[in-house]
């Protein structure tokens, strides 16, 4: 059966609306041929000028690839190499192409994609990498590290500000028909200005705008996402809708507020209980939920992780609720 994913040789140069590298007015670097280059301010391009990458340093790795920090045409960028997963090549391909669901989108709470390509020079083992994505480098920390890896105070107002950043990012994504499907603290990056940006679109899907749901994405239920944050309808293999991200947002906000792991115990037991017994993180034990704001946050979380997606707020409603908190 032919793969639904285009092969690397089929990636057209003009994949993105305007390949503007080389066409900018203020020169920041020069190519061998003497043309001026700079990081394109808006449009994503399918060209990476490899020789312009400097000071490449590893940042970390995830399920499908490695991330590096580098200097590129006068800007600090993050370089993500999506590796070919030997056990599941299709999943790693899908992850690469899914990252491009946001290639044309720009928002302050979404990590900006600068360029993406399926070819890389010196990749002698062509089978080792599916492609490379060049993104803005957001900062050195993600929310997972802040919540669990530091002792710095995370007072209520700061949690709500972070939550509002994520909700703004989701409102924007959903308005463009993109569902992230892997919202969790590790996928929310913190900028130097302490602003949250949603990253890692390797599980994302683009919805059929007419239907607003996406019933036919087999990979969604198999490989992608994180079971602790995954909406029960997805665990059951039902259709994807933007409300799946609202569920994951609820778990993420609970983690921000309590700094506890959402569930303990065996994965299979937890999965079963999420679906069959509506198991959710506890809203009782933490002092966070005692005050007036805490009571409102409790109601908001309970709505976000409602078993019935239709009862969850939209990202827009979520933002309003967060902004109205005492
Ligand atoms: N644009 C970026 N700017 C700064 N750091 C980044 C950027 N993108 C990713 N990182 C960091 O690189 C590391 C690896 O990220 P990646 O998205 O590959 O994996 P992950 O989210 O940790 O795991 P998984 O993909 O399995 O969910 C993380 O520490 C992440 O915070």
TrEMBL record:
In this chain, ATP is annotated as bound at 80
Q: Name one GO molecular function term.
A: protein kinase activity
Question: What PROSITE patterns has UniProt attached to this entry?
Answer: PROTEIN_KINASE_ATP (PS00107), PROTEIN_KINASE_DOM (PS50011), PROTEIN_KINASE_ST (PS00108)
Task: Note the superkingdom of the native organism.
Answer: Eukaryota
The Enzyme Commission number assigned here is 2.7.11.1
Sorted alphabetically, the Gene Ontology BP terms of this entry are: negative regulation of metaphase/anaphase transition of meiotic cell cycle; positive regulation of MAPK cascade; signal transduction
Report the top EC class in one word.
Answer: transferase
InterPro entries cross-referenced by the UniProt entry: Kinase-like_dom_sf, Prot_kinase_dom, Protein_kinase_ATP_BS, Ser/Thr_kinase_AS, Ser/Thr_Kinases-Pseudokinases
Protein name per Swiss-Prot or TrEMBL: non-specific serine/threonine protein kinase
Q: Which organism is the protein's source?
A: Oryzias latipes
In the record, what lineage is assigned to the organism producing the protein?
Answer: Eukaryota, Metazoa, Chordata, Craniata, Vertebrata
């Amino acid at each position: 059966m032919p793969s639904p994913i285009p092969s690397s040789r089929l990636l057209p140069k003009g994949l993105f609306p305007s390949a503007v590298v080389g066409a900018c007015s203020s020169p920041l670097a020069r190519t061998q041929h003497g043309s001026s280059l700079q990081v394109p301010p808006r449009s994503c391009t399918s060209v990476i000028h490899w020789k312009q990458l400097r000071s490449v340093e590893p940042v970390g790795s995830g399920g499908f690839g490695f991330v590096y920090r580098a200097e590129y045409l006068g800007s600090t960028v993050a370089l993500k190499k999506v590796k070919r997963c030997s056990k599941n090549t299709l999943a790693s391909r899908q992850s690469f192409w899914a990252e491009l669901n946001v290639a044309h989108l720009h928002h302050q709470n979404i990590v900006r994609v600068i360029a993406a390509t399926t070819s890389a020079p010196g990749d002698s083992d062509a089978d080792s990498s599916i492609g490379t994505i060049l993104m803005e480098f957001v900062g050195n920390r993600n929310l997972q590290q802040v919540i669990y890896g530091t002792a710095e105070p995370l007072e209520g107002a700061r949690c709500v500000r972070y939550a509002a950043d994520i909700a703004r990012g989701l409102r924007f994504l959903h308005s463009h028909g993109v569902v992230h499907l892997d919202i969790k603290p590790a996928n929310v990056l913190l900028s130097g200005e302490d602003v949250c940006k949603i990253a890692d679109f390797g599980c994302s899907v683009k919805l059929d705008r007419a239907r607003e749901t996406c019933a036919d994405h087999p990979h969604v239920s198999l490989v992608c996402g994180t079971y602790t944050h995954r909406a029960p309808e997805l665990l059951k293999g039902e259709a994807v809708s933007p409300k799946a991200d609202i569920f994951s947002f609820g778990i993420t906000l609970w983690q921000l507020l309590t700094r506890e792991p959402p569930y303990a115990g065996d994965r299979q037991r937890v999965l079963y209980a999420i679906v069959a017994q509506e198991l959710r993180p506890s809203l009782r034990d933490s002092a966070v939920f005692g005050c007036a704001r805490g009571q409102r946050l409790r109601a908001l979380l309970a709505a976000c992780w409602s078993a019935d997606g239709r009862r969850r707020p939209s990202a827009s409603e979520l933002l309003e609720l967060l902004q109205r908190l005492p």
